[in-house]
C-alpha cells in the first residue's frame, strides 16, 4: 500500500486470516451458483427504470437550481485553491498535507462520495469550471470546441489518465514529494484543458480520468438521473447496467481492478524481496509489474468473454464491451477492502494537517489538534469488512453479467454462455482474497 | 420487481451471514493471541551492498510484546519503523538498536531512508 511522505503514517491492515479468505471464496462460489440458477430468467435491469421512485420535490428543486450548481462549482474551486496553498507554498515535509489530500482524501475519498451521491467529480471538477468561466468571459458556448469529439475516442483518454495516475501512486519515484505531485498535476491540467478547448466541455465526461472514475463508481449510487434527466431513487444495479458500451471502457474498468491488485501484490514480501535483490531499479520493475498485472486481468477478461460469446452464440466481438459494467462492482469492492483503513486513519491525519498547509503552526480550520482514532475497529472487524465488500461486489458483478447475458445470448444458449463469466468472477474474487491474505 | 428486490436482499443476507461467521472465527483467533508473552522479540538485520540479511519477510509479534531491532549497515543511513515512527541513525559497521512496545495492531514496514530498502514487515496481532 501507499506509504506517504518520508516514512510517516505507516500502519497497514493485517493480512486477512486464511480461514477468512477461504470462507469468503466458498460463499462467493455458492452465492454465484444461487444467483445464476434461481435469480431470474429474463433481463430486468436498466430498462425504462420503471421501478425508480422520484426524489422528493424539495431535493429535486435544490439540486436542479442554477445557484446550487454554482455553489458546488465554487466549492470545488475553493478546495482546489486551498490545496494549491500547500502544494505551491508549503515546505516539502511530511507535515505538509498535500500528498495526503491528493492520494487519500481526493482519490480514495471519491469512492464513498460517488457511491453515495453519484458522479460528484463532474459537479466539482475545478478544471471544468475554469473552462466554463473562460468560455463565459469569451462569450463562447462551452460545449462547442474547435472540432467535434471523435466517436472512436470514447474512454481511451480517461484510461490513459487513469494509468498515469495509478503509475504515479504505486510506482512513481518520490511520488509523495511536492515537485512530483505538482509536475504531474500541472501536466494533467494542461492536457485536460487543451482537450476541452479542442473538443468542448463534452471532453471531460469521458476524457478526464477522475470524472470517469467518479462516474463509474457513482452508477452504484442509490440516487441518479433517468434517461430523461429526472432525479430518482433507484436500484444501484439499474444504475450500473445503464453504463453504455463505449471504446476504451474495457480498458478503463480493467485498469481500475488491475492497479488495485498490483498494489496488494507489491506489498507481499516475495515481491519486495524480488525487487530489492534483482539489482534492477525499482521504478523499472514496478512499472513492469503494474503492466503485467493489468495485462493478466485484461487477458482473463478478454479470453473468458470471448469464450462466453462463442458458447452463448452472441455476435462476435460484442461480449467484452457489453459486460464491462459487471467488473465495476468487483473493482469497487476491492478498492473499499484495500483502502478503507487508509481513508479512515490517514484521512483523519490529513484533515488535522490541513489546518496548517504552510507548516508554520497555524490552525486555520480548527482541526490542528485532531488525533487519529481507530473508531473501535479491531483487526477482526476490518478483515470481516474486507471479505464482505469483496463478496458483495462479486455478487453484484455476477448478477449484472447474468442479466446482460440474458439480453445478449439467445435463450437456448444463455446458460452455457454464462459459465465462462462465472469462472471469471470467481477467479477475480479468489485472486482478490488471496492477495489480501498474502499482502 | 418486489420479488427481485427481496431475492437480492436474501443474497445480501447470505453474504453477510458468511462474513459474520468468518468474523466470529477471526475474533476467536484474536482472543487467543491477546495474552502477550513477556519475552522480548529480538530482530537483527544486516545490510551489505544493498543486500538485506535475512531477506525481507514478515516478523510476527503479539500485541503488547517488546520489540528490539538491531540494524547493522555498511553505509550511513537512517532506519525507521512506519506507524510507530521509531528510528535510529545508522553509522557504517556499527549496530544501532530500536526498542519499543508493539502496542498497536497492524502491519508496519521497517525500512531505511537513504537507500530505500525494506528490512522487514512487522506484523502485530
Automatic annotation (TrEMBL), chain A:
Q: What is this protein called?
A: Fenitrothion hydrolase
What's the source species for this entry? Sphaerisporangium melleum
Q: What is the lineage of its organism?
A: Bacteria, Bacillati, Actinomycetota, Actinomycetes, Streptosporangiales
Keyword annotations for this protein, in alphabetical order, are:
Membrane, Transmembrane, Transmembrane helix
- Report whether Transmembrane shows up as a keyword of the record: yes
Record's superkingdom? Bacteria
**Per the UniProt record, which residue ranges are transmembrane?**
18-40, 70-89, 101-121, 153-171, 183-204, 249-272, 284-303, 323-345, 383-402, 414-438
From TrEMBL, chain B:
Keyword match tRNA processing: no
Instruction: Alphabetically list the UniProt keywords.
Output: Signal
Which residues, if any, are the signal sequence? 1-26
Q: Establish whether keyword Signal is in the entry.
A: yes
The cross-references to Gene3D superfamilies, in alphabetical order and at most eight, read: Cupredoxins - blue copper proteins (2.60.40.420)
Q: What is this protein called?
A: EfeO-type cupredoxin-like domain-containing protein
Q: What's the source species for this entry?
A: Sphaerisporangium melleum
Amino acid at each position: 500500500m501507499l506509504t506517504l511522505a518520508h516514512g510517516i503514517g505507516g500502519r497497514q491492515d493485517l493480512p486477512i486470516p486464511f480461514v477468512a479468505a477461504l470462507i469468503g471464496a466458498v460463499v462467493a462460489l455458492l452465492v454465484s451458483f444461487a444467483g445464476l440458477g434461481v435469480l431470474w430468467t429474463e433481463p430486468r435491469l436498466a430498462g425504462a427504470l420503471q421501478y425508480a421512485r422520484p426524489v422528493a420535490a424539495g431535493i429535486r428543486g435544490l439540486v436542479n437550481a442554477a445557484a446550487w450548481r454554482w455553489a458546488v462549482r465554487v466549492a470545488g474551486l475553493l478546495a482546489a485553491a486551498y490545496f494549491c496553498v500547500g502544494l505551491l507554498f508549503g515546505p516539502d515535509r511530511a507535515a505538509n498535507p498535500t500528498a495526503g489530500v491528493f492520494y487519500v482524501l481526493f482519490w480514495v475519498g471519491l469512492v464513498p462520495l460517488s457511491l453515495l451521491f453519484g458522479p460528484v467529480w463532474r459537479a466539482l471538477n475545478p478544471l471544468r469550471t475554469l473552462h466554463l468561466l473562460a468560455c463565459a468571459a469569451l462569450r463562447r458556448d462551452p460545449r462547442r470546441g474547435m472540432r467535434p469529439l471523435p466517436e472512436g475516442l470514447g474512454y481511451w483518454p480517461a484510461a490513459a489518465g487513469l494509468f498515469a495516475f495509478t503509475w504515479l501512486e504505486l510506482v512513481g519515484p518520490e511520488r509523495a514529494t511536492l515537485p512530483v505531485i505538482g509536475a504531474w498535476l500541472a501536466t494533467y491540467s494542461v492536457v485536460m484543458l487543451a482537450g476541452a478547448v479542442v473538443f468542448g466541455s463534452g471532453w471531460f465526461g469521458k476524457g478526464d480520468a477522475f470524472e470517469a472514475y467518479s462516474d463509474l463508481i457513482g452508477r452504484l449510487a442509490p440516487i441518479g438521473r433517468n434517461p430523461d434527466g429526472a432525479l430518482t431513487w433507484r436500484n444501484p444495479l439499474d444504475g450500473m447496467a445503464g453504463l453504455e458500451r463505449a471504446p476504451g471502457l474495457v480498458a478503463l474498468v480493467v485498469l481500475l481492478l488491475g492497479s488495485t491488485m498490483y498494489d496488494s501484490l507489491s506489498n507481499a514480501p516475495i515481491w519486495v524481496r524480488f525487487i530489492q535483490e534483482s539489482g534492477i531499479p525499482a521504478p523499472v520493475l514496478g512499472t513492469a509489474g503494474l503492466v503485467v498485472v493489468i495485462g493478466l486481468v485484461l487477458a482473463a477478461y478478454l479470453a473468458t468473454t470471448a469464450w462466453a460469446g462463442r458458447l452463448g452464440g452472441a455476435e462476435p466481438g460484442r461480449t467484452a464491451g457489453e459486460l464491462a459494467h459487471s467488473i465495476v462492482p468487483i473493482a469497487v469492492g476491492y478498492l473499499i477492502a484495500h483502502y478503507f483503513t487508509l481513508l479512515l486513519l490517514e484521512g483523519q491525519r490529513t484533515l488535522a494537517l490541513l489546518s496548517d498547509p504552510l507548516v508554520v503552526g497555524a490552525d486555520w480550520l480548527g482541526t490542528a489538534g485532531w488525533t487519529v482514532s481507530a473508531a473501535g475497529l479491531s483487526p477482526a472487524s476490518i478483515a470481516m469488512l474486507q471479505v464482505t465488500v469483496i463478496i458483495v461486489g462479486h455478487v453484484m458483478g455476477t448478477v449484472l453479467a447474468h442479466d446482460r447475458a440474458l439480453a445478449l445470448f439467445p435463450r437456448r444458449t444463455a446458460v452455457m454462455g454464462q459459465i465462462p463469466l462465472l469462472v471469471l468472477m470467481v477467479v477475480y474474487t479468489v485472486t482478490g482474497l488471496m492477495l489480501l491474505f498474502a499482502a | 420487481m418486489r420479488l427481485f428486490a427481496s431475492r437480492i436482499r436474501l443474497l445480501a443476507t447470505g453474504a453477510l451471514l458468511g462474513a459474520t461467521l468468518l468474523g466470529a472465527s477471526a475474533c476467536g483467533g484474536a482472543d487467543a493471541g491477546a495474552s502477550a508473552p513477556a519475552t522480548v522479540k529480538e530482530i537483527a538485520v544486516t545490510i551489505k551492498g544493498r543486500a538485506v540479511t535475512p531477506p525481507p519477510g514478515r516478523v510476527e509479534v503479539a500485541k503488547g510484546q517488546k520489540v528490539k531491532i538491531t540494524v547493522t549497515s555498511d553505509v550511513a543511513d537512517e532506519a525507521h519503523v512506519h506507524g510507530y515512527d521509531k528510528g535510529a541513525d545508522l553509522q557504517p559497521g556499527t549496530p544501532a538498536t530500536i526498542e519499543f512496545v508493539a502496542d498497536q495492531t497492524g502491519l508496519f514496514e521497517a525500512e531505511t531512508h537513504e537507500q530505500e530498502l525494506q528490512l522487514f514487515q512487522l506484523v502485530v496481532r
